[in-house]
Amino acid sequence: MLYKFKSKSTGDVIMLEPSGRRVLEIIGKDTKNGASQQGIVLAVDMPAALAALEAAVAQEDAERKEAIAQALAEHKPPPRFEAVSLRQRALPFMDMLRRCAKDGHEIVWGV
Predict the structure, then answer these.
(1) Fewer Cβ in 10 A, N or C end of the chain?
(2) Among 79, 26, 78, residue whose Cα is nearest residue 52
(3) What does residue 3 show for φ and ψ, rounded to 5 degrees?
(4) What is the pLDDT of residues 36-65, one digit of tens each?
């Protein structure tokens, strides 16, 4: 399954199901039992959604740095992480949120 996020302010943002579901969970959307197949993010909700994504990205970055520092302190090889970080996956959606919030347009998917 693909998530295709649409708005009047930007081009579409397309994500594979695991990444799209993770982003939706971070911004507080229900993803259980197929609830996330369709939805909307209203312009009024976008600042909170953007803040939640920024916090999740910062947390993942901090966890990665801490894991690397701990491995170096223990004289072990640095851990391997997923090839594409949350920062990279979420950036297009975060840009979409910023532009839509500025223009006052909602983001929809599955419609």
Answers:
(1) C
(2) 26
(3) -105, 125
(4) 788 999 999 999 999 999 999 999 999 999
